[in-house]
Write a structure and sequence with these properties.
This protein is α/β, with parallel strands linked by helices and 252 residues long. Helix content is 34%, strand content 30%. It has a five-stranded parallel β-sheet with strand order 2-1-3-4-5, sandwiched between helices. A five-stranded antiparallel β-sheet has the order 10-9-8-12-11, with no helix packed on it. The longest helix has 27 residues. The two termini are 32 Å apart.
Length: 252
């Protein structure tokens, strides 16, 4: 079961408690055997939230834009900026009594899921909370699925991401713990172990001690010569022991 963790940051204690009640109502209605929504944190200031969120993040955030009556104090927009830097996929819903403050979030380039105006009637706010929770969980799921389709590898101090569907094969090199990645319009080398890559990308088939192949990107197979030919025209030879599983793959 997937649990979506929710955090609230509202400096007014009464409004914080009331917002939590409304969110809990929506959580109760939306939770089922496959997913549940749970309020895990309630904060009353920017500083409290920063301390907690530095080590323990939520998934969905309800943030008051004005966290203090003092205009010099850090506000919800700055908190959202901190969260966004920590979590690319954080789902942020702003709460405000002044809808014009929403323009400030655009200036800071913070992508918010929604804006809830505190002065709206309670029925409308409740409906928006439920809709936002559903929308947030959908976005979180979509992001997770998109990440699952990416292969990340490290070269020196840099990290690179490539769509798994674009990879032709990953192979060993003459150098220990050094692997080669060949993809559509991309070739590179990185430090790694081919067994670990196989565990990470189980859809690739190990056709020899040296090669992990993305079978979906094979242009042609010559079973007699034990050759795999890629769209680029490059050929690699597969082991005799892999002949059966390659044949079975194409017969499916």
């Amino acid at each position: 079961m997937r649990t979506y963790k929710i955090a609230i940051c509202e400096d007014d204690e009464n409004q914080n408690a009331h917002l939590a009640e409304m969110i809990q109502k929506s959580c109760t209605v939306l939770s089922d055997e496959n997913s549940r929504y749970e309020i895990t944190d309630k904060f009353y200031s920017y500083d409290d939230a920063i301390k907690a969120l530095s080590s323990n993040c939520a998934d969905i955030y309800f943030l008051d834009i004005q966290l203090s009556d003092n205009p010099d104090d850090a506000n919800g927009i700055e908190l959202a900026n901190f969260i966004r830097n920590q979590q690319e996929n954080a789902q942020i819903i702003f709460m405000t009594t002044h809808d014009e403050l929403a323009l400030l979030t655009f200036e800071r380039q913070i992508e918010a899921l929604d804006y809830i105006i505190k002065n709206d009637n309670e029925e409308k706010i409740q409906a928006k909370i439920s809709r936002d929770l559903e929308k947030a969980s959908t976005k979180i799921t979509e992001f997770s699925q998109s990440q699952a389709d990416l292969f990340t590898y490290q070269v020196g101090n840099g990290f690179y991401r490539i769509n798994i569907n674009d990879i032709y094969y990953i192979s060993t090199t003459p150098f220990p713990h050094r692997l080669k990645i060949v993809a559509n319009n991309e070739v590179g080398e990185f430090t790694g172990d081919i067994k670990n890559v196989q565990d990470e990308v189980p859809k690739f088939i190990k056709v020899s001690q040296s090669y992990l192949v993305n079978m979906e990107n094979i242009a042609r197979v010559d079973l007699k010569k034990r050759l795999i030919i890629f769209p680029s025209g490059e050929e690699i030879q597969f082991a005799f022991s892999a002949k059966r599983k390659i044949k079975q793959y194409f017969e499916k």
